[in-house]
Amino acid sequence: xxxxxxxxxxxxxxxxxxxxxxxxxxxxxxxxxxxxxxxxxxxxxxxxxxxxxxxxxxxxxxxxxxxxxxxxxxxxxxxxxxxxxxxxxxxxxxxxxxxxxxxxxxxxxxxxxxxx
Length: 116
Known about the structure:
Transmembrane segments: 9-28, 34-53, 96-115
Pfam family, one: DMT_6
Shape: flat
Organism: Caulobacter hibisci
Oligomer: single chain
Number of strands: 0
Distance between the termini: 17 Å
Number of helices: 4
Keywords: Membrane, Transmembrane, Transmembrane helix
Order of helices and strands: HHHH
Structural class: mainly alpha
Protein name: DMT family protein
Largest sheet: none
């Protein structure tokens, strides 16, 4: 039986990495428009910590979870982080069709994660 930290650490690290990646991908859409090369460079710099968190998350997690479970969990985390970011940071309303689509994706994630 793996230690509790090995079960929890991958998800904590993936949550943190997704915050960085979501900001890297979408943070430049708010406020003053940046020149595209500046947006790309700043996004790369923001994405570096994301990789520094995601790689260890997957290394640690692979000892406990399958790669399909890790990827599916990461995608579910991405949807949650993206939804919160979109609503609170970008000020975009979440439409019912978007929420329903995400629920269907979560149902697929549950199928992969819980029914091995």
